Amino acid sequence: MSHSQKKSIIASRYRNLLPVVVDVETAGLNPETDALLEIAAVILKIDDQGKIVRDKTYAHHVEPFQGARIDQEALEITGIDPGYPLRFAIPEKQALHDIFTKIQQHIMEQKCRRAVLVGHNAWFDLAFIKASAKRSQLPFNPFHSFTTFDTATLAGVALGETVLARAAKASKISFNVNEAHSAIYDAERTADLFCYIVNNKILSLNASSAKKSI
Q: Which are the catalytic amino acids?
């Protein structure tokens, strides 16, 4: 299979949308007022066997924007200390611009029109990205404005589990609860879950339906 063929498969499979798995870690639940603290994006691709797999991961630790609300209960859950100097955090605008630029490059390489956010409870991640992009006055946002692929919903249908750790266990994906609530870790586990469901559940259901129609 040539490189150009692989690029066209993912574009045609997802209506010219490139699935990008995103996880954000935040200082609260309100995207308009609460700080974005971490963001990770996992690019997906089609391999030589025609399966969807993880490709590259991009991530940043993010400085709270000026005037951001910090919910201590949220920090206790994530274990993030926004003021810790060795986080090597960068401004929100810089973090989003860098990740958006990299995603746009993959969109062009894969001959897609834009990205579609894949996330576990994807509405949450998309809401924070949209609010952060608006606040940062970025000239473009590569993600579809409202369409998402939600792995909580997909896992609930395919595996009978909606919690990420339990869905991972059901699909035999390694999951360390001590590493959870890291944007990189959660995004990569979410990507593995999405790929598992697509490669082993959705495609098998399609195959079964095709056989019944013959």
A: 181
